Protein 1
Amino acid sequence: MPFGKWLAPIAALLLLNAALGFENWSGTPAVWPGLRLAPEFLALWLVLLVAIRAFGAVPKGLVTSLAIVCTFLVIGRYLAVTAPILFGREINLYWDVPQVPRFLAVIGQPLAWWQQFLVASGVVLVLWGLYRLLRALVGILARRAAPAALRSIPALAATAGAVALVTAYAAGVPGTWERVSKPVTPTYARQAELLFTALLPDRLASALPPSPPFDSDLALLKGLDVKLLVLESYGAIAFDHPESRRRLAATRDALARTIATTGRQVVSAFFRSPTFGGASDLAHLSLLSGIDLSDPLRHDLLLASDRPTLLSLFERHGYQTYGFYPALSWDWPERAFYGFDEFLDGPALGYRGPEFGPWFIPDQYSMARFDELQPIQPDTPPRLLFFPTITSHFPFRQVPPYQPDWSRVLSARPFDDEDVERGLAYQVGDWMNLLPEYLRTIDYTYAWLAGYLEQPSPRDYLMILVGDHQPASSVTGPDAPWDVPVHVITSRPELVERFRALGFQPGLEPRRPVLGGMHELTWLLADAFDSQRSLGSLPGAPANPAPARQVSVGTLSP
């Protein structure tokens, strides 16, 4: 084939590969053509080669079928790569599809009927145009590129090399991700399994491990408020590494002194997180549900169930539960599973200060703002606050200064100008060694926690600090354990004794062995607060909670 006649087939090859392997443009909903090899494109190319070898030509029906498949793959890929940008997570058809009518109603509300008709017609035309374009590209490959490739040794060699590259990528060979785009087909398969399981109550119930009984009477709390803070990226590296111990010694000692001088005690232990370096939701929900969610699919299935949680336990005993998520600035339909009595996200806080890094609302401000927005009155019921912090989130860049004046931190000018300039001017030194930057965020966390404990409170509270996961390997190095520290801070000696009986150690320094997985911490908390469980009968640190106390409740959420 003359070189000029190769132009259209080569262009079709490149365009179709780009259509099945595009990426987001600079973190926006816009996309740009990917230059990496798309596994789905390679599969389509192999189907064409096999069809020509078997039939002598590609049947028109197969061309149409492949074009339809490509259209769905392109749409699926756009959703797969855009959802993390817009929603901070992967696409989830169980939760996202029911939101489509509401989304359409919101965007269509200001439009007249004829404008809505034009928009809908435009969407249909765009999808039809996409299909026609993809069909034309597949047709060019079927009629011209594939037949020529079967007669070309270099083309067949290139095809064999592409197959070897994608096979190596599937096997996890290092470096191949730079040349192969992430396929979207597994996303479709995962969503199909999720929907199939979630919509069948019996299958859903059997897919999830048993839940804790959540039969604790919580009597030992005596109506004490509980502040359950999940500290972002607070992992065992904060204790295991010599540099961590040196750099954090001053603020950790200051926090310990504050705990003592305010009439409180602290006990600590290590637990094993279900995740490492990210995916904090797995840790959050493992803690609340008492179910091991190290498998992300199990996490998604749990969200489709009506399993009980710590929240439902506390609500049953008269507590008001608060979900406090300053990191969220987008709609989060999954919170329907959690069932918080009150939910606050980032926009609800009205932060007016300087923005330090991508997670711009300082944790100190968030904690102070919550107390301002939700003041405690004489008739306020006991409350359980669930607060995942955010300042210590990767990439550990600019860290806000600590403001000793907690009333000022709520103002439009929470910090001195020189502190703001110094904080915003900070640059990461070595992206391959983020330990120093990470320790700055933990240092800040210790500082604001100590400051908060010093603030007057209208009533006493129990504070539980739980690390969600270890930071990324750029901080911990390779082969780091998945352990995270847990601290329980209280002024009630009887609670201190309960946790010590469960294996916790006095002080801010947790010790090994690890007491169990994050989901087993749920069991320990319920036992610690239960008046029916005497100190002598507490199980200590069970590697596996007693099967006799397990219950399984798993039906489809309404």
Protein 2
Amino acid sequence: MDHVSHPEVESPESAPVGPAEQPLSQINTLLSQLDETADSPQAASDIAYQDRLVQSRLGVAGSLFTALRCKHAGTASHSLRVALGCSSWGIALGLSDEQLDDLEIGALLHDVGKIGVAERILAKPDSLSGDDIALLDRHRRMGKEILCSCSTSQATLEVVEYAPAWYDGSKQGFDRRGTDLPLGARMVSIVDAFDAMTTDRVYRRALPVERALTELFECAGTQFDPELVTHFANFQSGDQDREHHQARRRWLHSLSHDENSMRWQPGSSACVGEALIPEKLFHQKLLDNIHDAVIYIDANLQIVAWNRGAERLTGISSESVFQKEWTPALVEMHDENGNVITAADCPLAYVIQTGVQALRRLKIRGRNGRQTGVDFHALPVVSSDGVTHGAALSLHDVSSEITLEERCQSLHDRATKDPLTQVANRAEFDRVHESFVQVHLDSKLPCSMIICDLDRFKSINDTYGHQAGDAVIKSFGSLLKSFCQPGDLVARYGGEEFVLLCADCTNAAAFERAEKIRVAFERITHDVADDKVVTACFGVTEIQPGDTSETMLNRADRALLTAKDMGRNRVVQLGTGVGMTSETPMRRWWRGARFQDELRLERELVAMVPIQIAIEKLRGFVADHSAQIVAIEDNVVQIKIDEGPKSLRRRNSDRPIPFLIELALSEHHGVDEDTSQQGPSRTRIRVVIQSPYSRNRRARDVQNRAERVLVSLRSYLMARDANRSRHHGEGVIRWAIRLLSPWTSNQTS
């Protein structure tokens, strides 16, 4: 595995290209660090210079941001992530302090206009109508009006004003395009879109980082600045610790030492509410682990709690529905006779209005998209003074079909235990993993793998003895088990290395869980090791088209090695997930592919990324498939791969089939018709797959395996069929609007 170093900040072209291992969600860790003491604190009197923009950010932005948080906490959290992400990226670009000031306050308050947006729109759980989008679009203008009354910086106002503008000028209502748009606005638009794509929404799950970066590349030159997209991708691919540290010091310095400004610290007790008392901890533990769906709705029909059982039953994450309005349409609720239940006939609204509990047999949309029978039991929540504060709803699955989690859980329950940690051992993991992958591929549901390894564990054994080392391993195993959900499997893979299989879980959700485990473990002190702290590295991946249990494990292991190369105590994710080929079924996608007598398959692909990134992804394909590079000549690469059978019920006669893959890669640049400037880079790939097997009884099996190899290659390269690729012009605009409008116009989830 190649070592991943810091990207060069002087020029985007000079930055090294590697896998997108460091997602923007790592910015979340900064939130818990903003209230820490800076490494070299200074008294306020020692600060020689405080410009007006910093004062404006600390004084006015603090009160405006608090107002935005009170209006809609999800929007405020999104804005803070965007601001911190822009701050770190701006440092990597070498922006001046004045430019960073404009960028940070503009990013922090780019959505402040939503203070003036109607509550029904911000709380709407499903997609917005045309009229709703028109009303929501006005929040940009309202944001500018709010800032005009309290900010004297024209540069800051322009960041907020032009952040929604498109780089090619095709979006109406803006008088600038291209590099005439403010640099800060172009940066905010990229980080804003990236954060929206990598965050759960009611109507879709968070995208894996590599998928999100691919979408940015596809819109480079139309919606986004192509040069900045390239630099942002390189920035995400490198070790960002230096920039994050500098950004943290910058924010701490400004927030802690300006006596003339209001203090504002995200996550302070004054803003996030009282800490959980022990009784609430018991309540939360029960709520998280009960199998049935439990949902709390306040008197305004806003969702205030959505437990894991509800996530498992509906496939909708709790983060995406928090503070959203409850409607029967959210879960596509039907009555006993199969009739759609409208908002006017909502049984939950009736419970809140009348104070009478309801128990009915209904049907809702399950996580697999099919109707699921449930027992609907709603109880009014009434205080001692007779005031109704909302309702508590439980949904019990009464369908006869065994759920995927229950099938996976039965495997978990029968697992052979590791004697030290009491988690599954290596042999049981190998058995379960193959079934686990097959079940999720058949059901077309996502699943993820987290592979983790304790950092520098040998020094613990050498210094404190093997008993101390065993105690640390047991502590880590117990921590992993505490983060398991129904259907998951945690196994000790060997020594101090563990694997966690996450059922019905996307790459983004697995990354978030791994990050929580990492933070929790680094805070544990071990008395057997003189109260020292031990850290761990984590590699995360999601199953993707063409995967086998081996390729999935190899990809997760490659992510783990990258985490070690980047300095340890971190989480790295790789993989595009199951959604890369969702636009067309495999068989339909293969229509037109031709197999001749010599079993030769040809295909033209287009990867919407520069050639250096495509080559990096090809390197991952070779590593994960244990392939061999036979020859490289000019732009042509020949690879030999042995493809094994897919079925779990293998016959003794089944043997791996060798394939020779030839790839011819070429880079193409679009051209802007109005300016004649060079557009974003795309990589065209001609793929030829051949097998030595000719006509025989295994021909169909060989063809199926060749198809799986090509589907896997296509996923790794993040490529599309050349005949279906996007072209410049009106078609791109229509496609981009369709793709991007859900998370640019409805980021209130």
